[in-house]
Amino acid sequence: MANVTTHEELIVRMDFDRFPKRFTCKGEDVSPRVRIDGMTQPFLAILLEDHDAPERPFVHWVIWNVPARGEIPENISKVERPPELEGAVQGSTTGGEIGYEGPCPPRGQIHRYELKVYGYDAPLDLQPGATRAELLKALDGRYSEYGETVALFGR
C-alpha cells in the first residue's frame, strides 16, 4: 500500500483576480500583498508560476523560511534575505532574478499566474538563489499545509 500524504488546506488570497499594472512588468514590478488563513505551521514558502508560458512553468517568485503570518506585505525587497520578512530567503526566477519578477506575458496574450503557499515545521537548508525545483525537492515530505490562488494578466 502506497504512503498517502494529506495536506491541510490554507486559504490564500491576493487583493485581485487580475494583476493590477503596479505588480507587473508594465508597472512598478513590486510583489503583491498575500493573505493566508489557516496556518498552524511556523514556516511558509511561496511560489508564483506561469504555466501558460512557453517555458513551463515560468517561475516569477521563490521564497521560503518565511515566519508564518496571516499577511505578506507588498513590495518585498528583491534581495536574497529580505529585511521585511526576518529569516526568509529568496530564490531565482526563471529570468535569473532574485526575488519577485512580475507577470509579463507576450503582447496579445492573457496568462494565468498560480500563487502557491506551503506550510512546514522547520527551516529549510537551501542557499539563496535556489530554484523552484530545489525548493520543491526540499519541501517533499516536509510540508503539511498547502493553498493556492490564481490571477490573470494580459498585455
Query: Which CATH architecture?
Result: Alpha-Beta Complex
Tally of contiguous helical segments: 1
Flag low-confidence runs.
none
- Total separate domains: 1
Summed over residues and divided by their number, the pLDDT gives a mean of: 94
What letter string, H or E per element, gives the SSE order? EEEEEEEEHE
- Numbering strands along the chain, what is their spatial order in the largest sheet? 1-9-8-4-5-7
Shape: globular
What is the total tally of β strands? 9
Largest beta sheet, briefly? Answer: 6 strands, mixed
The level-1 CATH class: Alpha Beta
- Assigned CATH superfamily: PEBP-like
Distance between the termini: 48 Å
What share of residues is helical? under 10%
Query: Gyration radius, to the nearest Å?
Result: 15 Å
How much beta, percentage-wise? Answer: 25-35%
Structure in words:
The longest helix is centred in the C-terminal third of the chain and has 8 residues, at 132-139. The protein has one helix at 132-139; strands at 8-9, 11-13, 34-37, 43-50, 58-67, 71-72, 89-90, 110-120, 143-154. By secondary structure, the chain is mainly β. The protein has a single domain (8-154), classed as Phosphatidylethanolamine-binding Protein. A hairpin with a 7-residue loop joins strand 4 and strand 5. The protein has 1 helix and 9 strands, in the order E-E-E-E-E-E-E-E-H-E. It has a 6-stranded mixed sheet, covered by helices on one side.
